[in-house]
Amino acid sequence: MYGDLLSALPEVIGFTNFAAVVIGVIAGIVVGAMPGLSATMAISVLVPFTFGLEPLVALGMMAGIYNGAMYGGAIPAVLLRIPGTPAAVATTFDGYPMAQKGQGGLALQVAVVSSSIGGIASAFALMLLAPPLSKVTLLFGPSEVFWVAVFGLASIIFLLGGNVVKGLISACFGVFVSVIGSDPIYGSDRFTFGQLELLDGISIVILLVGLYALPPVIDLLETPLKTDGVSSSKLGTDPIWKSLPSMKGYWKTWLRGSIIGIWIGILPGAGGSMAAFMSYNEARRTSKNPQDWGEGEPEGVAASEVANNADTASALIPALTLGIPGTAVAAVMLGGLLIHGLQPGPMLFRENPTIVFGFMWQFLFGAILLVLLGGSLATNSFARLLNLPRPLLGSVIIMLMLIGVYSIHGRMFDVYLMLGFGAIGWVMDKLKFPLPPVVLGLILGAFAEENLRLALRIGRGDWTHLFSNVTSQILVALTVAVVVGPIIKRRVFDRRKKDKAA
Fold first, then answer.
1. Hey, which end of the chain has fewer CB within 10 Å, N or C?
2. Whole-angstrom Cα distance, residue 23 to residue 58?
3. What pLDDT does 226 receive?
């Protein structure tokens, strides 16, 4: 089972593949350090430029960006009290007070070491848990795969939080986009509106760039950022190797936060923000000096950063084995796999073991490189990124988006389509419609349709064939639980609230 994991290692440590991880980590830290940008946006912009690259090179850059951006969000969180990524909100609680005391450099060093430890733990979890789970999923037939797709959509819609109706509308929009083009069985046109460019369907890259890259850039240009002349000279920095001995007492926090982050990452729709808050609250509860938390406690930075990085690779456990991403970034990464001809799900480990296991190693190396690159550069160079003119940064990103999308097929129709999706994404963002269900609907929509029709052909049109075995029945039960569970929980909460009010 783990033989393929070891055999993929020599491929990963090749110069090109390893360099891709290094570049990805640096780029991820840069993106994470800019408030308003995120790993999701960075990977969305990167995906079109990876068409001509080997799959492992492209995936290595994605893994590096993911690891780097999750730490990079701590830089403005510590220096400006502005989380660079949503998962870095908890980092502001103690990181910013430390910076006010002249300990900004120490806070960033605690953050980068904790981020690296969380990422390493997450990568090991992916290596240990994904292979045995993939062996189980290889036994799935068309009906089981269909129910896995339905379960994935239900999980994102009902477990993501917020308005369930909006989540359902977003998922339905993604499913609608997935069926545009030629019918896979009969070859008839569906929703092409007479446009020949739509016969092959809509590329997931165009959707990803439009939904995830354009709205943040618009917000970046709309909102001015006051940095108050942040510079590395104000951080109070010692070399990181001198700071490491003072962090050895955080091992319990790192262990606890890693477990929390891994668990939250596996759950569809949860994400790093929930992991960071849970880890922070649990570490504060067990602390010997909880009164110091919120006033500049380094262990608070460690607790939040280790957890929000421990959910990175673990979010890919259900994504790679079942096609169900645990986070928005994992959903975008599934799109990156698809454009390289790699279908996430049961057959991925059998058909492309070198690539999928190499991808796991790249996550591990990216987490290790975080200390080497982030620890040495964060307090000297990355703080200056906050002083970059936002119009210049936004213009560069838009230019990269236009070039990347045009390079897919060499036609302006794709650029217009991307801008259209960008407008839709901006409106959805303003109206608080979740975006991950759209991406998952696009990924799983056609997948579910294909397996549903295949299962019905096997069962000769008998719908009871979809429920004919124990595995399908278990998946149906899980789907029902995902749908009904939040409803029951909300009603119980409302009833208790009314009882207290009475």
1. C
2. 11
3. 55
Task: Report pLDDT digits (tens) over 5-38.
Answer: 778 888 888 888 889 899 888 888 877 777 666 7
CB–CB of 73/91 below 8 Å? yes
Q: What is the pLDDT of residue 387?
A: 59
- Spatial neighbors of 89 by CB under 8 A, at least 6 apart, are 77, 83, 273, 276, 277
Give the span between the Cα atoms of 82 and 80, in whole angstroms.
5
pLDDT at residue 1, as a whole number: 58
Residue 293 lies in a domain: yes
- Spatial separation of the C-alpha atoms in residues 103 and 402, rounded to whole Å: 41
Paired sense of beta strands 189-190 and 181-182, if any:
antiparallel
Q: Closest Cα to residue 303, out of 113, 43, 495?
A: 113
Write the CA distances from 30 to 42, 58, 63, 86, 197, integer angstroms: 10, 18, 15, 16, 36
Tokens representing 185 are 């069985």
In a domain, 493, yes or no: no
Q: Is the Cα dihedral 126, 129, 132, 137 positive or negative?
A: negative
Q: What total number of domains does the chain contain?
A: 1
Please provide the size of the chain in residues: 502
What SS3 state is found at 35? coil
Q: What percent of the chain has pLDDT over 70?
A: 85
| Integer angstrom CA distances of residue 293 from 31, 60, 106 | 28, 37, 16
Tell me if the pTM is above 0.85: no
pLDDT at 94 over 50: yes
* Position 440 in a domain: no
